[in-house]
Amino acid sequence: MSDGLRPGLLLDRDGIINERIVDGYVTRTDEFTLCDDIVPILRWAKETQRPIAIITNQQGVGKGLMTEADLTTIHDHMRHVLRHRAGVEINAIYVCTSLAQARDPRRKPQPGMILEAIHDLRLDPSQTWFLGDSRSDAEAGRAAGVLTILVGNHSLDIADVVVPTLAEVLSVLQG
Ligand SMILES: [Mg+2]
């Protein structure tokens, strides 16, 4: 491990922190439903002193379905929920609001936001996991050189680890 670099935990938001809205977006706090199975994962990260960052595409802003202010309100609410339910503080939230067709290098499957997190939080990529539920999460994580774990019904070769549900993630992280 390079001097001073830390293992971290990077998380996709929709489908990992909160229940995904199929073909839609969380645009209000009352649409934010915590995934219960993320709670022990967050507690593990805190216990093992891993910085936690969220890496999320939110093109609902780019589409005009919500404003930046709406998104800030949702993320303030998310921080509040995670503080109370898991006792954790999120170290950083990285958001890309660009439309898919804008080809923003920050937007997953591009690695831009993950690279920002590695730099800002002084993470060791070889000991940092990115947990997501979409192929684009695994692609972004691989391009950034971190370990990837994907939840859901995916082919096994697209991430370092693929598990059916969030409930199986903790034992993988614990090694
Ligand atoms: Mg997702």
Series of secondary-structure elements, N-terminal to C-terminal: EHEHHEHEHEEH
Strand order of the largest sheet: 3-2-1-4-5-6
Q: Tally of extended strands?
A: 6
Helix % is: 25-40%
What is the CATH domain class of the domain at 9-129? Alpha Beta
The largest sheet is: 6 strands, parallel
Q: Which whole number gives the mean pLDDT?
A: 96
> Whole-Å distance between the termini?
18 Å
Overall shape = globular
Tell me the structural class: alpha/beta
H/I helix tally? 6
- What is the radius of gyration? 15 Å
CATH-derived architecture of the domain at 9-129:
3-Layer(aba) Sandwich
Range of strand content: 5-15%
Regions with pLDDT < 50 over 5+ consecutive residues? Answer: none
| Ions, cofactors and other bound molecules | magnesium ion
CATH fold group of the domain at 9-129: Rossmann fold
Name of the CATH homologous superfamily of the domain at 9-129:
HAD superfamily/HAD-like
Feature tags:
single chain, binds magnesium ion, alpha/beta, 175 residues, Rossmann fold, six-stranded parallel β-sheet, globular
Tell me what you see in this structure.
This protein has 175 residues and is α/β, with parallel strands linked by helices. The protein has a domain at 9-129: 3-Layer(aba) Sandwich (Rossmann fold). It has six helices and six strands. It has a six-stranded parallel beta sheet with strand order 3-2-1-4-5-6. Strand 1, helix 1 (39-47) and strand 2 form a beta-alpha-beta unit. Bound molecules: magnesium ion (MG). The site of magnesium ion has 8 residues, from loops.
